[in-house]
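I would like you to sit down with the pair of lines that follows and say whether tokens and residues agree.
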Amino acid sequence: MKALIEVLLIDDNSADTDLTAEFLKRSDRAIHLQRVSDGIEAMAFLHREGKYSGAIKPQLIMLDLNMPGKNGWEVLIDLKSDSALRAITVVIFTTSRATKDIDRCLQLGANSYVSKPNNLEDYASTVNAIGTYWFDVASMLRLEGL
């Protein structure tokens, strides 16, 4: 039996999280997806506060940058400055293709930066590629002790 992979999607666009979840779940991987719609909710989830007291720490976070309230930049800074959270793999998955955004995210500690494609076929292919790389190729999944 395959180990369950914990994934947290942080994005205020429910259409994007629905698509991302759909394409990740189509794989043959055992994935448990959680979703939150803004940075404040994300940090509550990650710190297991309030309604998230039973939340399981994700192994992979897919983070949008442009959200109301606490945006993705702020979440990334908080994640990478917290010793209990900094080891979580963070994939920035956002619409921006700006070099300055890519550089800043990588400098802040994001593990990768992926721009969301504009059409459904490319979106599916991109989400699948993220899954293939992080779940099958990279050695980011420390399944014990997270």
